[in-house]
Design brief:
Elements: E1 6-7, H1 40-57, E2 66-67, H2 73-84, H3 100-108, H4 113-116, H5 124-134, E3 137-141, H6 144-156, E4 166-170, E5 174-177, H7 181-191, E6 206-210, E7 213-219, H8 226-236, E8 242-246, E9 278-282, H9 291-299, E10 306-310, H10 316-327, E11 335-339, H11 348-356, H12 364-371, E12 377-383, H13 387-398, E13 407-414, H14 440-455, E14 465-470, E15 483-487, E16 490-495, H15 497-506, E17 511-512, H16 529-532, E18 540-542
Parallel strand pairs: 3-4, 4-8, 8-9, 9-10, 10-11, 11-12, 12-13, 13-14, 16-17, 16-18
Antiparallel strand pairs: 1-2, 5-7, 6-7, 14-15, 15-16
Helix pairs in contact: 2-5, 10-12, 12-13, 13-14, 14-15
Length: about 550
Amino acid sequence: MISAISLRPGSVSPLASAPVAVPESAEKPNCSISANIIGQDDYQTLTSHIAASEDQSHPLAGQSTIQFTELPVEIHEVILDQIFGKRASLSNHSAHGQSSAQNWSKALHHPRRKALSDLALTCRMWTGLVQSRIYRHIKIKGTNRELIKCVWWFKRNPHLAPYVCHIEIWMPIWGNRAVRPNDARSNAEQNGTHATEHVVDMQTNHDHNHGDVIFRYHRATGNTSLEEIFWLIQYLFPTARVLTLEGGHCKNAPIVRHSRYREAMNGRNLPVLGQIQTLIMRGAWNLMRQVDDWGNISQALPALSEWHCDWVQPHLCAYLIMMSIFIDTPPTIRHINLGLEEFSNASNRLLSALFRSQSAPPPICTLLGEAIPRFESFTYSGRVCWYLFKKLKEGATEMESGSPLRSLDLSVKTCCHNQKVDGLNHWTQTSYGTRPITSIAFIRDFEAMVVKAIECLSVLPALEYLRIRFINLDSSCPPLNPYFELVNNECTGLWSDDILEALRVNRPSAMFFALTDGTGNEYDDQQMLGALMPQPRPLGIQLNSYSLLADTSSPY
């Protein structure tokens, strides 16, 4: 048993301090087998020798020993951290591009958590330490049946509820596999029922092509509502600090009901969760499709300080909803991680057609630029341009106490031209969708955005981390996707004369790690484009290096 292990002072002494007597016969390699037999006199001499050495290595009889259970709790915490993984602090907010939600997912998920639960039986001290790690992050299926099971389990084990700090609810979209009509008819005849009764309560089926076989699945039924989820957290988990809502995503997915009844909320508010500080929304299109939906959620979370919102597929309504939210953002929110578009190019045609329409939305760059100075960290992926940093600098300059912004991370889906445009026609210049790195005009647009971002450093003294990157999975040379990164006054990525001059004026203490061209070694007179392309991402990329990839046939 682990509890029976004792740590004695003699056990941690070096090996040299424990002399071992070696008989002289052991030093004679050519002795016979009969010569190795120890006589009575030799046995007594050897026994006294070993007893003397044991007396030197063992502690005195009056000296107390330290049992395993008597070790400081910090040592037990370190031991369990090696097994379960290091736990993230509840107050560990986003910093340097890493959000607290990422820290939670790494620290609280273990592939053998159920097998490791037996460690709680090691000793009394480990019971609470192990259970707190297992139940620190729980994941519940968002159905009425699973919520009832959750209530039943924690009512039987009320001592486990205070350990729950992170609750993750995922809403299923697909239900059971649909039965073929012939199979359903035969099963119904055997059971003495009608075939239609098997699917009477199911919704519309959906087909998935898998080779020559077509699989049909029912829509999920019995999903719970946000009102019931919030009531469960309020009733069972008063110590929870992080809430994750997984709305799922698929074509024509149903929205998650906010009320337990079919009709609208009609003035009904969600149960208030005053202890929740971090909200993570995945598949936000199924959780909120209008501004009022966000109003119901935000009113129920008065202490919300960190918000993660990911839209799996780009929607015009997503931009409209987020722009309405940024007009009046709750003042308690200090950290935002917003993803409006993924990195794939499958959605370019959809949004390009939307932004060409006469009802083009107002510029989100303006609203983001006005809101970002109030946050401590901001992470964004979507459409953006240099106009954001222009408004950001104006907003930070007007703040008397200065902006608290410490981290800014932008993943650019596409950016506007570097021409001066008014606010009403701001989006019209992105109507061509994502342009590749073979477009010199796009590289110039990206450079203009980096220059404007560097000009904001003079009014953002607390900013320690700045990253602007363009990610294109279909790029002809992924390592040369343009990026700019500033970490503790050390810069990497795209550089040009304008970028270096803006950096010298607005933050003289910042310097580039390497001013390289970003390509491989040049070969005498051989222009081998494949050999010039780097394998890892270069630390420095000169703007003129993109002329090697330029597509002269493209007007953009």
